[in-house]
Amino acid sequence: MAKSKKSVNLVQAPLRRLAPIFILPTFFAFVIGFVWPFIQGIYLSFCNFNTPKDAKWVGLSNYMKVFQDAGFLNAFKNTAAFAVVSIILINVLAFIIAYALTQKIRGANLFRTVFFMPNLIGGVVLGYIWSMIFDGILKNYGTYLTANGTYGFWGLVILVAWQQIGYMMIIYIAGLQALSEDMLEAARIDGANGRQTLFQVIIPNVMPSITTCTFLTLTNSFKMFDQNMALTNGLPSVIQDGAKINVTELLALNIYSTYNINKNYHGVAQAKAVIFFILVAVMAIAQQALTRRKEVEQ
Amino acid sequence: MKKTAQQYSTGSKVLTWIFVCLSVVWVFPVVVVLINSFKENGFVNMEPFALPSGESFVGLDNYIKGLTFGNYPFFRAAFYSLFITVTSVALILVFCSMSAWYIARVNSLFSKIFYYLCLFSMIVPFQMVMFTLTFTADQLNLSTPYTIPIVYLGFGAGLAIFMFLGFIKGLPTEIEEAAAIDGCGPLRAFFNVVVPMLKPTMISVGILELMWVWNDYLLPYLVLDRTMYMTIPILVQYLKGSYGTVDLGATMAVIMMSITPIIIVYIFCQKHIIKGVAAGAVKG
């Protein structure tokens, strides 16, 4: 940021004197709500602890336990599978809906309003509503949602698609509306048919929206907690090699339930949280790198 | 542009009907809750998709019961939810916009460090800090609905400052300099000159934070003293936990009462909400 001398004297100097009003309140809250818990979280992942006061350094032993934990491995596989399925499903459907709604269609605004509506309802409430619906349907076949891991997995996919399609649709609509009329006109004059226009003109030009939505659905899937807890809470559980595994548990819920087993698992849960953080951070950084490269190419 | 009926092609008419069907699918889950909220407890589990009949219809009984039942009245949870949401969003809007302006205009090491910490905090999932945040909040006596907004300000600061900063960087500094020449101090310059220009970003940030705080379950569940304070999501999960022993009809009424206000707000402010989401995504 290049600053002129004048601005330094006129704006910066008086503002700097008012730092206690302008920036310190946020900074203190930020230290309480983020910085300190983060540092303490890293430290405690190397400890056995009930509360931070009785923490005992145990080195890497928590991390060793995480990698031998069948439940964590299962949750990781679930999360990866869930992420792949929901990324494809949500983005394809959201794009189709957005594309259709940006054509000349009656009531487009009303439909947009309806599709976005589920995002206003919290994950816990959504999970409750859908568990009732799935149980109501499955009852006709003499079974129930948590009877089988497959039901729980696809139930969560349906719930999350129902919720997030509207959200991604909004982003795609914004991307599609930003396309220049001249460019579409030029494609028409050059004799491009509808399909060619879609695949060779429209899709390449809404690539930034596609990248944004793909990564949003990816990180949303990895961070999914409320819906997972409220829909199945990880059930059913099975015993495998002497360890209890919650079949439909995703990573975030696995960390939480590990912590609640008993106080000997607090350190293990915190170590899982650190690994989880690294996973999510790597994805976010990859998105930044990818978006930046795309911008350079264009 | 308003169009008359003749200007729509057959294709777009077919599309409209497809969307009508899809919309019905989309509102179906909410309709299920609505019809069950008028049914007697026993009928909710037995035939969840049936309309209330003479036998199962109980009128507004479930709503009256829902307001008081489960030894935790709905009104109390609704009050805490509303208080926490309004206070947290207000704190975030005021303090984060001030901080963003400070970071943008004061070229210091502290500004830089804070900015990079904000960026960093955006890639850290809540699970990383949730246990330790609970300890910290407990130690500092932040576990009441009246103090938890400080925790929200802290954990939400990263995204809010980032979004404000993105906008402020595009503002010309000449206006602020002119204000300073006219003898305007930083506080007046901020609230009278910068804030009016920031209004669209304020609305976007406000809406994103509002949707987050109102629906948040885990943070208040972990931080608040649960024996005394429940927000609406905590109450719903609590009622679900006692599945079978709880009055399902009344629970449906509780859910209905918890989603109706936000849907009404949505209907009136949907333009802003949709704009806010689109703006937030472009930055994020």
Q: Can you tell me the overall shape of chain B?
A: globular
Largest interface: A-B, 100 and 107 residues
Strand content of chain B: under 5%
Helix-strand category of chain B: mainly alpha
Give the spatial strand order of the biggest sheet of chain A. Answer: 1-2
Radius of gyration of chain A: 24 Å
Can you write the helix and strand succession of chain B as a string? HHHHHHHHHHHH
The tally of structural domains of chain B comes to: 2
- Which percent range fits the helix content of chain B? over 70%
* Poorly predicted segments of chain B: 1-5
H-E order of chain A:
HHHEEHHHHHHHHHEEHH
Overall pLDDT of chain A: 87
How many strands appear in the DSSP assignment of chain B? 0
CATH architecture of the largest domain in chain A: Orthogonal Bundle
Tell me how many strands of chain A there are: 4
Q: Provide the CATH architecture of the largest domain in chain B.
A: Orthogonal Bundle
Radius of gyration of chain B: 24 Å
Shape of chain A: globular
What's a concise summary of this model?
The complex is a heterodimer of chains A (298) and B (284). Chain A has helices at residues 5-17, 19-22, 24-44, 61-67, 70-101, 108-116, 123-138, 149-177, 181-189, 194-205, 207-223, 226-231, 251-259, 266-297; strands at 47-48, 56-57, 237-240, 243-246. Chain A is mainly α and 298 residues long.
What does this structure look like?
The complex is a heterodimer of chains A (298) and B (284). Chain A is built from 14 helices and 4 strands. Chain A is mainly α and 298 residues long. Chain A folds into 2 domains: 5-44, no CATH class; 64-297, MetI-like fold (Orthogonal Bundle), CATH 1.10.3720. In chain A, α4 (61-67) packs across α14, α5 (70-101) runs parallel beside α8 and α5 packs antiparallel against α11 (207-223). Chain A starts with a helix and ends with a helix. Chain B has helices at 10-36, 41-46, 61-68, 74-105, 109-122, 126-139, 148-168, 174-181, 186-215, 218-223, 232-241, 248-283. Chain B is built from 12 helices and no strands. Chain B has 2 domains: 5-68 and 247-283, no CATH class; 74-223, MetI-like (MetI-like fold). With 284 residues, chain B is mainly alpha-helical. In chain B, α3 (61-68) packs across α12 (248-283), α4 crosses α9 and α11 packs across α12 (248-283). Chains A and B meet through α1, α2, α3, α5 and α6 of A and α1, α4, α5, α6 and α7 of B.
